[in-house]
Amino acid sequence: MAVVNIRRDVEDQFYRYRMPLLQTKIEGRGNGIKTVVPNMSDIARALSRPPTYPTKFFGFELGAQTQVDDKNDRYIVNGAHQADALRKLLDDFITKFVLCGSCKNPETDLKIMKDGMIIRDCKACGKRSDVDMRHKLTTFITKNPPPKKAKGSKGAGKAAGQSVEADGEGVASDEEDDDEMAKQIAKEAKDTPIAKTGKDADENVEWSVDTSEAAVRERAAQALSGSMQASLVLTPGDDEEEGEDENSPYSIFNQWLLANRPGGDEGRDDLASAEIYKKAQELGIEKKYKAVQVLLQALLTENAPAEVPKYGAVIAKMTTSEKHQKAALGAIERLAGITYPSLVPNGVPKILMALYQLDVLEEEVVQTWGKHVSKKYVDKETSKKVRKAAAPFLTWLEEADDDDEEEDLDDL
User: Fold this and answer.
1) Which parts of the sequence are annotated with region: Disordered (predicted)?
2) Cβ atoms of 149 and 240 closer than 8 Å
3) Edge-to-edge strand list for the sheet holding 128-130
């Protein structure tokens, strides 16, 4: 089957957004003649739209009746219509209901607002653009809203209308609250030294590190390699594609951070928060939660407890929602659990305390995270290990809550 660019005005043969070339098949004769689009489902999947939307769009534009049979995968427009004519109409549909009104990228979702307006939410530039509510298709979309994507589904290319239950299967197991494991973590964490101020009793911990020149070089190489690998491993979300190629904005951001952070390839002594945020803006990802994951994994090193306050301004600026906070916590899991194991056990509480004091992490989000052993970002054993290390900070939060409640009672 022939494949064309979603934006057919783009002639670049390496354009990443592609779709099958629309095909037609004319059936019947006389008053019963009709045009079948046999690959409508494939086209709709590439556009991340239900196949009923372009089919209905054709009907409205041509003034013809349409027939939709999802079960048998048949999408029909009454009358005889040539493929070229329908392809031009498909281009109009893409322009009006798929492409971002700002950057013209097709990586958008349709969202119906509370006031009834329909917007195109762009995952590339973060902008939201209205669709023309005067078109008759908007009424159909309002009555037949896009199916909600299952948690963890891929981005563009997901078959529209795919069963949420089937796609969501297994997600619960990743996020399930393993009560017994959580209790065990809390029990084992009691012996981990940390003062209520959030500082570790480092004087009680003895460290033995090979400081030979060869060992230092080997650890540096492993750390850089691990950091690059960890930063590039992005978990699939409900609005992003799984896996990022080297030309994706996240990969570019990752490589830039690794090169420009102190000790990076560029030999920089310092990197300002404003410069980091400006780079994220240039790539159009300053509002993306995955950018927070890349930021922490690529920017922080084994000295993360001291580096978090240093880059606190940009970390706080880019962490704007609960989803961003969860991505930050996932980055800490990978940073401490995989890239820099030396951060376990004493470094994790310090990192969390630093982020908490910057108002980057909210109390409820951290406490919920601490009780749920997950394999979303790392394997389950590593997840357990990181949460065990974090338990002293979580205990401090709980005790701080208890103290606040006692003070409130005293004021009554």
Assistant:
1) 139-213
2) no
3) 108-112, 118-122, 128-130
CATH of the domain at 365: 1.25.40.180
Over residues 260-289, the pLDDT tens digits come to 888 777 767 788 999 999 999 999 999 999
Q: What is the pLDDT of residues 149-169, one digit of tens each?
A: 644 444 444 333 333 333 333
pTM above 0.85, yes or no: no
* Residue of 241 and 50 predicted with greater confidence: 50
The number of distinct structural domains making up the chain is 2
> Which residues, other chains included, contact 112 with Cβ-Cβ below 8 Å and sequence gap of 6+?
118, 141, 142, 145
Same domain, 126 and 249: no
Cα distances from 31 to residues 67, 79, 80, 242, 274, in angstroms, run 15, 8, 10, 48, 67
Confirm whether 115 is domain-assigned. Answer: yes
Q: Which CATH number covers residue 17?
A: 3.30.30.170
193 and 327 assigned to the same domain: yes
Provide CB contacts within 8 A for 271, sequence distance 6+. Answer: 260, 261, 262, 299, 311
Please report the DSSP string for 223-292 in residue order. HHHHHHHHHH-----TTS-SS--TTSHHHHHHHHHHHHSTTSTT--S---HHHHHHHHHHTT-TT-HHHH
Percent of the chain with pLDDT over 70: 72
3-state secondary structure of 66: strand
For the record, the structure tokens of 411 come out as 């004021």
Residue 406 CB neighbours (<10 A): 10
With H, G, I as helix, E, B as strand and everything else as coil, classify residue 376. coil
Span 95-118, average pLDDT? 93
Note the pLDDT of residue 233.
55
Lookup result for tokens 């704007």: 320
Please state the φ and ψ torsions of residue 119, each to the nearest 5 degrees.
-125, 160
pLDDT tens digits along 216-226: 555 555 544 44
Is pLDDT above 50 for 67? yes
Same domain, 124 and 232: no
User: Which pLDDT belongs to residue 399?
Assistant: 81
- Contact between 93 and 57 under an 8 Å Cβ cutoff? The reply is yes
Residue range of the domain that includes 135:
3-147
Q: Is residue 127 part of a domain?
A: yes
